[in-house]
Amino acid sequence: MTGKQPKVLISIETEAELLAHAHAIEQDALERYRMLADQMEAHNNPVLAELFRELASHEEKHAAEILSRAGNIALPDLRPSEFKWPGVDSPESAELDLAHYKMTPWHALQMALRAEQRAFAFFDHVVNSAGDPNLKAWAEEFRDEEAEHVELVERLLEKYPEPEPGWDEDDDLPALQD
Ligand code: ZN
């Protein structure tokens, strides 16, 4: 577990609320992975671009599954400000600052890792705070899926270590010697 605790206690009380949040998380992940795939294509890393596209379609399938699971349950149409996310950051914020035009695989994977960890923390919190056993069981299932995503990204990070300082310097400028 990460040491950082959610700043705001959230409580998800209904299955509809849980599914609406889960769907938003998947949708968010899907868009993030597509963006990262584009970045990796621009960065001439077709292997990672392909991988991010696979992850995107994986999240897309999850999003569709959540909708079909909702079945007749009407999902609340949440505005981002109405999401009961842990902490104050919405999942989408902050990290987009990291989207550098020369983003390396390491940066892309760091961004993915943080998003997956946040999704894990969200469902973990629901598991620990849910009163309803049904709700708890569903949240557990979502949490386990996120745990797998975290592990997957962590394994990839072993293959793509942090770049040396200076990774973002402009190659067109002559190197300064001292
Ligand atoms: Zn995930």
Structure described in brief:
Helix content is 59%, strand content 0%. The chain is mainly alpha-helical.
What does this structure look like?
Helices cover 59% and strands 0% of the residues. With 178 residues, the chain is an all-alpha fold. The chain has one domain: Ferritin (Up-down Bundle). It starts with 14 loop residues before the first helix and ends in a 19-residue tail after the last helix. Zinc ion binds at residues 29, 116, 119, 146, 149. Zinc ion is lined by residues 29, 116, 119, 146, 149.
CATH architecture: Up-down Bundle
H and E order: HHHH
- Give the end-to-end Cα distance, rounded to a whole number of Å: 44 Å
Mean pLDDT: 79
Give the strand tally: 0
**Main sheet, how many strands, which sense, barrel?**
none
Q: At the fourth CATH level, what is the homologous superfamily? A: Ferritin, core subunit, four-helix bundle
Percent range of helical residues: 55-70%
How many helical stretches?
4
CATH level 1 class label? Mainly Alpha
CATH topology tier name: Ferritin
The number of distinct structural domains comes to 1
Poorly predicted segments: 1-8
Helices and strands in order:
Layout: H1 15-42, H2 46-70, H3 105-129, H4 133-159
Bound molecules: zinc ion.
